[in-house]
């Protein structure tokens, strides 16, 4: 027998061919679709895999795009929050011969306070006075602390008082039984009351002591106002505070209480002494002050002891006896001899003006205060009998109105109907007849200034507008008002022309240009090539006037 041949049965499997890239992508998308459908959304199994992947891609792109956009918006919001208000809409001039407004943002000031624009010798008495709890930038004078009047908006100046400057005080808390009292050196907190809150039927003190001072008879160290049952301490007399309704406690004072100031037979109360506002005619209540008495966020102290309101410093008017409140201010010149050379005249309105402008007839309140009238620009009303000497501007002469007390300005006037116009010896304007010599003489004789127009030449001492052929009075040079159409009368101004002649001008820091002080900010500095000081002066002024800038 032949050997049995065994046949092994073998099963052969077809070999798998490798997948292409497209098949791999399709396979992965199918897997992702199955994961989505099983995980969160069963309806995804009915959607094409490609659609699901596209949606996912769009979501990712949206997230990536949102990141830089968010950063940009955040940065912009921060800039807007710190940037200042744009005040360009407040610009009132259409600059023709004036410079364009030059903005300075409030944050560019770097927190620059008005005090940094003050003369170095004017003290703001920082560290003195009482800072209101609810608004620490508001500091009131020490003399107003615990005086019975609420000077802080939140009334914090009348809280936690250990001593009172008012006529009456009581403890703010009623003490318990004496056995429970503990010996302590801590002073009790007081409530400070003025006389009007005594015996008024309203209990202000916890122990009702403000109503228990009502007596029919007072002790020897007390006094009573007529019509009032309250017995007041003797030191309430002549303290400057009217405690009696008829004011009898402040009449005929030969001596004032400590802290008060004597003016004749009257006393100025302590809170009004050295408060920057003169109560006495001789202003003695604002002299010999120190930082304790002249303290407060709206006060300033001269080195000579004169107390001023903070707004009086660098306002163009000299209030300190030596004028140092106007030295080295924005808009002033750094010439020490200028203030010594400039002669001032105090006029009827209480202000001081330079003698040049005061006696040129341009300021009516100065007509009777000038020692000598300008011989060319004014007409001198003679003093005779009850009539007083006056300096009136020449355009008022022969205008039909008596400006002199005796009518001297309307005497010897040629009637218009008799005016010698035909032979050119005279001319008319404003219904008056003037000599031909008054034309183009550098003085405005006509109210419309027509007598100084169309001039071929101008006399010495006057200003000539070359473009307009006009003659201007000498005082108009560098007064801050451009009379010439090309502004030449306001160009290349010297310090003496600007501030030595005029009292209400601002000298631009570096451009030799003078502006009217009340027009230099509109609200940005109108100075050509304004410096940082010019800009800061206007920016701080806007903040101050809007109440946003604490002293």
UniProtKB/TrEMBL annotation:
Protein name: EGF-like domain-containing protein
Pfam family, one: Ldl_recept_a
GO biological process, one term: single fertilization
Domain of life: Eukaryota
Disulphide-bridged cysteine pairs: 146-161, 199-214, 238-253, 274-289, 302-320, 314-329, 398-413, 440-455, 478-493
Keywords: Cell membrane, Developmental protein, Disulfide bond, Fertilization, Glycoprotein, Membrane, Receptor, Repeat, Signal-anchor, Transmembrane, Transmembrane helix
Organism placement in taxonomy: Eukaryota, Metazoa, Ecdysozoa, Nematoda, Chromadorea
PANTHER family: LOW-DENSITY LIPOPROTEIN RECEPTOR-RELATED PROTEIN 2-RELATED (PTHR22722), MEGALIN, ISOFORM A (PTHR22722:SF14)
GO annotation, cellular component aspect: apical plasma membrane; receptor complex
GO molecular function: hormone binding
Membrane-topology descriptor: Single-pass type II membrane protein
Membrane spanning residue stretches: 50-71
PROSITE patterns cross-referenced by the UniProt entry: LDLRA_1, LDLRA_2
Source organism: Caenorhabditis tropicalis
Compartment list: Cell membrane
């Amino acid at each position: 027998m032949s050997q049995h041949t065994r046949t092994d049965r073998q099963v052969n499997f077809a070999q798998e061919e490798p997948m292409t890239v497209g098949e791999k992508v399709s396979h992965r998308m199918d897997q992702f679709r199955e994961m989505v459908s099983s995980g969160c959304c069963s309806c995804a199994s009915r959607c094409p895999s490609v659609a699901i992947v596209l949606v996912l891609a769009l979501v990712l792109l949206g997230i990536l795009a949102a990141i830089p956009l968010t950063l940009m918006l955040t940065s912009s919001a921060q800039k807007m929050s710190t940037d200042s208000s744009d005040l360009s809409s407040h610009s009132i001039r259409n600059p023709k011969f004036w410079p364009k407004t030059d903005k300075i943002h409030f944050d560019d000031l770097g927190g620059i306070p008005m005090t940094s624009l003050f003369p170095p010798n004017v003290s703001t008495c920082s560290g003195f006075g009482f800072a209101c709890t609810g608004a620490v930038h508001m500091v009131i004078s020490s003399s107003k602390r615990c005086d019975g009047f609420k000077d802080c908006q939140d009334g914090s100046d009348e809280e936690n008082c250990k001593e009172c400057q008012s006529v009456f005080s009581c403890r703010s808390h009623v003490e318990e039984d004496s056995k429970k009292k503990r010996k302590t050196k801590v002073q009790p907190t007081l409530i400070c009351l003025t006389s009007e809150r005594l015996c008024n039927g309203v209990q202000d003190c916890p122990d009702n002591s403000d109503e228990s001072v009502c007596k029919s008879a007072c002790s020897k160290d007390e006094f009573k106002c007529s019509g009032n049952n309250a017995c007041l301490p003797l030191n309430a007399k002549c303290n400057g505070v009217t405690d009696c309704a008829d004011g009898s406690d402040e009449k005929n004072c030969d001596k004032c209480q400590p802290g008060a100031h004597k003016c004749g037979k009257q006393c100025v109360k302590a809170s009004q002494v050295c408060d920057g506002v003169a109560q006495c005619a001789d202003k003695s209540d604002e002299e010999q002050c120190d930082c304790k008495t002249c303290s407060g966020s709206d006060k300033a102290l001269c080195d000579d002891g004169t107390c001023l309101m903070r707004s009086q410093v660098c306002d163009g008017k000299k209030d300190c006896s030596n004028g140092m409140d106007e030295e080295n201010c924005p808009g002033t010149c750094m010439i020490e001899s200028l203030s010594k050379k400039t002669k001032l005249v105090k006029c009827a309105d209480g202000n001081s003006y330079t003698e040049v402008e005061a006696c040129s007839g341009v300021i009516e309140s100065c007509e009777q205060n000038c020692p000598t009238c300008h011989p060319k620009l004014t007409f001198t009303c003679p003093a005779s009998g009850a009539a007083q000497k006056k300096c009136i501007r020449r355009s008022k002469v022969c205008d039909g109105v008596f400006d002199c007390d005796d009518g001297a300005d309307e005497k010897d006037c040629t009637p218009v109907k008799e005016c010698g116009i035909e032979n050119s010896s005279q001319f008319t304007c404003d219904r008056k007849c003037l000599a031909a010599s008054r034309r183009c003489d550098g003085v405005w004789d006509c109210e419309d200034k027509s007598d100084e127009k169309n001039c071929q030449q101008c006399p010495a001492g006057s200003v000539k507008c070359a473009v307009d052929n006009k003659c201007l009075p000498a005082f108009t040079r560098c007064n801050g008002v451009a009379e010439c159409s090309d502004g030449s009368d306001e160009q290349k101004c010297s310090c003496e022309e600007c501030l030595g002649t005029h009292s209400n001008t601002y000298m631009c820091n570096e451009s030799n240009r003078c502006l009217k002080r009340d027009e230099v900010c509109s609200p940005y500095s109108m100075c050509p090539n304004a410096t940082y000081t010019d800009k800061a002066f206007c920016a701080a002024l806007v903040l101050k006037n809007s109440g946003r800038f604490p002293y």
